[in-house]
Amino acid sequence: MLSGEFDYIIVGAGSAGCLLANRLSADPAKRVLLLEAGGRDSYPWIHIPVGYLYCIGNPRTDWCYRTVAESGLNGRALGYPRGKVLGGSSSINGMIYMRGQAADYDHWASLGNAGWGWRDVLPHFIEMEDHYDPARPQHGHAGEWRVEKQRLSWEILDAFRASAAQQGIAPVEDFNGGDNAGCGYFEVNQKDGLRWNCAKAFLHPIRHRPNLTVLTGAEADKLLLNDGRAAAIAFMQHGERLQARCRGEIILAAGAIGSPLLLQRSGIGPAPLLARHGIAPLRALPGVGANLQDHLQLRLVFKVQGVATLNQRAASWSGKLAMAWEYLWKRSGPLSMAPSQLGAFARSGPDATRPDLEYHVQPLSLDRFGEPLHRFPAFTASVCHLRPASRGHVAIGGIAPAAPPIIQPNYLSHPEDQRIAAAAIRLTRRIAAAPALARYLPEEYRPGLQYQSEEELITAAGDIGTTIFHPVGTCKMGNDELAVVDDRLRVHGIAGLRVADASIMPAITSGNTNSPTLMIAAKAAQMIAQDNNTPAPIRTPAPPAKETWT
Question: Which candidate, 274, 292, 313, 372, has a CA 20 to 30 Å from the CA of 50?
Fold first, then answer.
């Protein structure tokens, strides 16, 4: 048993957990414990932007989950990366700064979630942000979450942008004003050419605080209740089973996979699932693990001629050395690249009232993630449906924390998702055939022009579709039968317990999900302070000091 009691115990030092620890420990009268199953973010490849290639699929930094075989993907199972390190998935993700669309949050509010409309959440985005352009409206410049321009340009990407414009997708400079329609280069969470993860932004600057305890290598097992209240948490660290007591609130920030699994192991979840594993039910909540949503990206590859792509530059040792030299001296070039550089938000058809497709365009190509680049010049136009109708679930595969979970996204299981997938492939082909790209003679390599009919395009989508790493929704906010938390993120029927991460989203946001998760954590910290009659959390800059973490 850890000595004493904590006012707040935060489970998971990922994006949400790092921010929560920052805000909640700002009150020196509150004792805060932050548990992280992974290790410190000292692995060098975390910080070099292209290092995601060596972090995803690496058990040092990734949980290395897998989905079940998906019928919508023609029987394929997918790797399902989730960060297992300080900073969580912000230490291994694509670094893209994206808020989503104003209508996403207004939709949350329309479902009965008071205080979650666009006007309510925008101040939290602005407060945490440190945007590179002081003249940009609706952006913050004094926060911890650094946003910068990318330090690269590619002729083939500029040509794609021009072709998109010829298909009605206008060039834009800012995707984060509430309507992200258009095409432009993504802004990224980097600082001076290095990844800016949430541990750097929110956790390391406050490591001196004596009221904050951070335990790494500490994997949460189950919550312990006393008279219907979350009173303690059991966890494993270095092979030893430990407990920590809480006199205030336990906040789950373990993500869309980790948070529902912990609830289920603790006896909070669907009654049939708990019975199947012999877990005593403490609170029947059928929505724990349900409502799983993710963005399925369709990766179309086009061969090109007469233009440089990364496929050629990375093919020789001289090219690799030149890239390394450019990064060492200028912190620019391919080693500073986010996984996707150019973005576009478009409508799948005239019936779409706002953009429902997102493109991630890259000056490279490969058969699948983790495999070598192709030996021919090519670019990839990856496109995902932003608001899928398909719903999946996540469930424990056993009572031990080490038991692999059952992750079933049910991609393309809804007819509407199939229709939009086919429309997305057709739109991508029209962009590739536009005059601005014609000089490079684009030739579709994947999926291939043999797929033409609606049925054939749906089959092709199943062949080339893969996750873009945006799982959300498995502890949804609301008051319907599948809701797990209320609009103050309190778990229904369990006192002293909240969830504050991407799992609470009732519907996925229209874009990359990391910064919306930070917004959720910032709003949660504010609500926790209000509900516990403590001063509002504030940012407190702090000098580096000796670490007190274990």
Answer: 292
Q: Which of 124, 131, 360, 470 is catalytic?
A: 470
- Cβ distance 214 to 40 under 8 Å? no
- What's the token pair of residue 156? 């083939």
At 383 the pLDDT is 98
Angle at 141 between CA 139 and CA 145, to 5 degrees: 90
What are the pLDDT digits (tens) for 189-199?
A: 999 999 999 99
pTM (two decimals): 0.95
According to the annotation, is 85 in a ligand binding site? Answer: yes
DSSP-assigned letters across all residues of 369-430? TTSPBPSS-EEEEEEEESS----BEEE-SSSSTTSPPEEE--TT-SHHHHHHHHHHHHHHHH
- The owner of tokens 């258009």 is 182
CATH of 1-147+194-293+391-409+471-550, one of 3.40.960.10, 3.40.440.10, 3.20.20.70, 3.50.50.60: 3.50.50.60
139 is catalytic: no
* CA pair distance 490, 500, nearest whole angstrom: 9
| Dist CA 5 CA 32 (whole Å) | 9
Domain ranges (residues) in the chain? 1-147+194-293+391-409+471-550, 151-185+296-385+412-469
Give the E-state strand segments of 253-367 in sequence order.
268-269, 283-284, 296-303, 342-346, 357-362
Structure tokens at 543: 């000098």
| Residues forming beta bridges with residue 184, ordered by sequence position | 343
